[in-house]
Design a protein that fits this description.
By secondary structure, the protein is mainly α. 51% of the residues lie in helices and 0% in strands. The protein has one domain.
Length: 86
């Protein structure tokens, strides 16, 4: 049976940081690629893999994985929670 695990990369994390640029907290002037290299060791990669399996296509898998990465980054304080307006 083929290994179907989603392989989280530092590029995935950097992409999430870039797409949430306005909510990134405590960068201390570090570029996103350096932050990603540290953060990859702080994420629950099994949870990211499980989230990725909810997608049917490769693009959907990547989107689901990045959504989970963002959720985890919020839970550890790297991304601020966005407040709903209204």
């Amino acid at each position: 049976m083929a290994n179907t695990a989603y392989q989280v990369t530092e590029a995935d994390i950097e992409s999430v940081l870039r797409s949430n640029i306005l909510t990134v907290h405590h960068t201390n002037g570090e570029p996103f690629n350096k932050m990603a290299s540290v953060l990859i060791g702080q994420l629950d990669l099994d949870q990211v893999d499980q989230a990725a399996h909810h997608g049917a296509s490769q693009d959907e898998k990547a989107d689901s994985a990045k959504t989970e990465i963002a959720r985890q980054l919020r839970s550890i304080g790297v991304l601020k929670y966005e407040r709903a307006l209204g």
